[in-house]
Amino acid sequence: MRTVLRRPDFRLLFGGLVASMTAESILLLALAIWVKELTGSSGLAGATIFAIIAPMTLAPLVGWIVDRYPRRPLFVAANLVTAALLTPLFAVGDRTDLWLIYLVAIFYGLSYITLSAVLSGLLRHLVPTELLADANGVLQTVRQGLRLIGPLAGAALYTAAGGGLLVGVAMVGFLAAAVLVGLLRVAESPRSWPGRSCCCHPGCTCTARWSTELGAGLRYLAGEPALRRALLGYGLGSLVMGFSESLIFAYVDHGLRRDAAFVGVLVTVQGIGGLAGGLVSPGMIRRVGEVGALAVGVALFGSAALTLSHPNLWLGCAAVLLAGVSLPFTMVGLHTLIQRRTPEPLIGRVAAGTDAMVNGPRAVSIGGGALLVGVFDYRQLFVVVGLVTLLASGYLWGGRRLSPPAQPAPLTGHVPVRRRSPTGAP
Questions:
Q1: Cβ(101)–Cβ(89) under 8 Å?
Q2: Contact indicator for 76, 167 with CB cutoff of 8 Å
Q3: I want to staple 337 with a disulfide (CB 3.0 to 4.6 A). Which of 7, 50, 82, 290 is the partner?
Q4: What does the angle CA 9 – CA 12 – CA 16 come to, to the nearest 5 degrees?
Q5: Strands (DSSP E) along 261-357, which ranges?
Q6: CATH number for the 1-185 domain, one of 1.20.1250.20, 2.60.120.10, 3.40.50.2300, 3.40.50.1000?
């Protein structure tokens, strides 16, 4: 990781991303708390998270837009627009203004998809292929650290000073990201700009061409063997991995016989595991490739779920630590695979489509887990999660050779020396 951090261009991008990720992390929980305080309803507070996730359905359209513009200016513009879109929150006074929070949450979700898709293309331009895993590992480590402290900091800031100061701090984060990334100098190939004729032959219609372009990312995902294997395997695991969001409360309540607040302790332990996973995930990718690292991450989550089927404090801490390590393995492996295997003109659509196909099943499984935990014993459900994710891991591991580790770049100016055989023949 130190190699990629020595690059001045990556350090500039890194500073901008830390600023924007900090703004994202402090807003995520605080918006839900704001709704809860205004309405007293847990359901309406939870709907805030749904409002953020809902724009995932527009991922193909967002990816198509991203692929039509240069990455750096679009990243700068997206951060500036996100900062501007937060301004309606200054007008929120009582529950009659609830719609403003939901509206901002929807735009915030669109911003998240856009920035994620743009980032994949921007990293592709800035970082050599053999350093992509290190770059993604550095960013995932920071994201896991912010996931550990950001939401709590945002909630504390809202409780202490109110929504106005919270919104102001988040806006500063997005503006700082725009300024820092705006200083980058990135040479990008020309794109098909809006307004230019889109017809490729006399019988082509604009509508048909747009429809083809919108679906190009999903078609590429379906046709590229390594990406198809990764999404099928990880998608299978995601169908049950979201159960754990509800099961952990039952585990703490019925298994450990502790107050619900103890979940916060386990989340902290999981965050520590996430930091460790972010640091070691590039090394894992160099050993087994991206699909192999994805398989290891899903296997670690499955092992953690099986361990949680037996209530024990120390085993539980070890299990959530493993679950924390698993997340960077899966995220770094998947993002690096997209960046290595996708043609540059398609990378925005492929990245956005992947987000939708991964987060869609996860959102469904979170809702399904909330229903199932009221019907079945949480231990049985943890066993189901463990077995299904281990099955998905086995499927992924079987395809690890589809994405062999990237070879290190040859040393500049190195001339290989040919050795002679003992007989003197060349």
A1: yes
A2: no
A3: 290
A4: 140
A5: none
A6: 1.20.1250.20
